[in-house]
Write a structure and sequence with these properties.
single chain, alpha+beta, Pdz3 Domain, four-stranded antiparallel sheet, globular
Length: about 350
């Protein structure tokens, strides 16, 4: 079944790329911008067909795609050129790809939850003998974790994540008897308990289940997408701080391998495809956020330069030549391709080493 999971993972990548570029394409068309080529994939063309003013192509390397618009990186007097459009139109076109990825992630999550009968909630079910945190001023059985240090607790696993980030004092928000109870600067550290090898906080999180009504399915879909978004930002923070190395990053090769491994580890084929789709939803949200980072060559970088250009032109009343921005994005693209090649090399090396 491994080859089936690999092909399914590649298909997911193709859909993610296609929906991203379709977002740019459909908004460009809606804003009156001429789209010269709409391509899925990079490299040599496998299939090409021109319909109307646009060339549609499928290319050999399924690692990208593009929506080539008239006058995208150069001066053009055509009223249908990208650079001839109002700044707000260009911003919408640039952000549309990421928006479509995020919406796709939401749709996949909702489809995965549609058959759910209930959802687990992070509720305190009890305390170990001698636990000092059970009190009228502290924690009580039946409390549901809502926030830890300002971070929303969407799933039971989030409790351990934010209690393990260091510090001895926590700002907690618990839901108690249907009301939010704030506990400020609450001292709480893992301690030793009889019969336990490791230090622990000393409370149990139960398996309380709330009924999966249609409204709850919608809210849990949104909560899961927000949790995915937070995981991306936390990963970026760890990368900037140096907690993780660039060598630990994974690209398409590593992610496809992870998806295939996820499928193989599942108990049933149904669980395998569920888990792979769940991972695909995470990647969709990940792509949405990463594409909006203010980095040259990415959509976020283009929006950032659009804002800077608008500010400069508003002050100087002189139109800037877009070719200079094109140079910056060209240099950024070279650096991104170099990073992708480095990451892909490490992915392949990890696969060879087993």
């Amino acid at each position: 079944m491994t080859i089936v999971y690999i092909l399914f993972a590649i298909l997911i990548f193709g859909v993610l790329i296609g929906i991203h570029e379709f977002g740019h394409f459909i908004t460009a068309k809606a804003c009156g911008v001429k789209v010269e080529e709409f391509s899925i994939g990079m490299g040599p063309a496998i299939f090409k067909k021109k319909k109307g003013e646009t060339l549609y192509s499928l290319r050999a390397i399924p690692l990208g795609g593009y929506c080539a618009m008239l006058g995208e990186d150069e001066e053009n007097d055509d009223p249908r050129a990208f650079t001839s459009q109002a700044p707000w139109k260009r911003a919408i076109i640039l952000c549309a790809g990421a928006a479509m990825n995020f919406l796709l992630g939401l749709l996949v999550i909702f489809c995965l939850y549609i058959s759910a009968k209930g959802f687990y909630v992070p509720v305190l079910s009890g305390f170990m003998d001698g636990c000092p945190y059970e009190s009228a001023e502290g924690l009580q059985a039946g409390d549901q974790f809502y926030k830890i240090d300002g971070h929303r607790i969407y799933h039971t696993e989030d409790v351990g994540t934010f209690l393990s980030r260091g510090g001895d004092y926590y700002d907690l928000v618990m839901i108690r008897n249907g009301e939010k109870v704030k506990i400020k600067d609450y001292y709480m550290v893992p301690i030793e308990y009889e019969g336990q090898e490791n230090k622990m906080f000393g409370f149990y999180l139960g398996n309380d289940v709330e009924e999966a009504t249609f409204g709850k399915k919608l809210s849990h879909t949104w909560d899961t997408a927000m949790d995915f978004s937070r995981m991306v930002w936390m990963s970026l923070e760890m990368l900037v701080r140096g907690d993780v190395s660039v060598k630990e990053l994974s690209g398409p090769v590593g992610i496809v391998d992870l998806m295939a491994e996820t499928g193989e580890q599942a108990e049933t084929v149904e669980d395998a495809f569920f888990n792979i789709l769940y991972l695909g939803a995470f990647i969709a949200v990940n792509l949405a956020i990463m594409n909006l980072l203010p980095i040259p060559a990415l959509d976020g970088g283009r929006v950032f330069f659009l804002l800077i250009t608008w500010l400069i032109e508003s002050v100087t009343h002189k139109k800037l030549n877009p070719k200079y921005e094109g140079y910056v994005h060209g240099a950024g693209m070279i650096l991104l391709l170099a990073l992708m090649a480095f990451v892909m090399f490490n992915d392949i090396l990890r696969l060879v080493r087993g």
